[in-house]
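Subject: Predicted fold for Cellulose biosynthesis protein BcsS, 247 residues

User T.R. writes:
Posting the sequence so we have a shared reference for the thread.
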Amino acid sequence: MHRSLIGCAAALAAAGCPAARAADWYTGVETPAGPDAWIVAVDTSAAIASQGSQFASATVTAAPAGDLLTSGVRLRVDGLIGSYRAESPGAPRAVGQQADLAAMAGYALVGPDSVLSGYVGLAVRRDEVAQSGLTETVARTGVGLKTALDYYARPTAFTMFHATGTYSTAFNAYYGRVRFGVAALAGGYVGPEFAALGDDYYRQWRVGGHLSGMQFGAVQLGLSAGYVHDHVRKGGLYTALDMRTGF
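User M.O. replies:
I've generated the structure tokens; pasting them so everyone works from the same file.
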């Protein structure tokens, strides 16, 4: 199931990223463009790296009272599935699979050109590592507290800044991403990005460039690519596609 879903997402996206056990791909909290204020926003991401990892994720954020353009209470659900190259004694080609689900509540402060939101809730994470050539599978399941913080701003009419981070006590999983961009002639913003992620079993960081906030009707698209380094497969390349829509 994991592989079929990931393959579908990767085919649609033709993109990806270097994820690992601690990956929590979330495209951010940009306010919707256009006159209509969304009540629910849906963020999806497909990711792949040259080290052999591939992930797909979805985040649903809802404003139970009002809309996402005004300050107020927020509800958020995160889901993630994926596979990666794992470190396993005696099995250099071990493959890991991951599934993660979190439900959180929080609050968003919406300003004229910025959004700051924080969340807290529960997360369930499952990791399975199948050793190449062997039938033995090591499975781990953890339940823990998860927190998330997002900040998106347009400092000027031609620039953007976005920082997002999550932490879960289930395997001490963390993810952080920072982006800066300037308005592009083709639409959206272009600029550098940096991300770090990891948990009790894996660590990874990446640096590259992004083109984000491209508007196609009610859909926003973002692309990114660059260099990735993880402690199992070392250096490589990544690419990713983010998509955001709502209603």
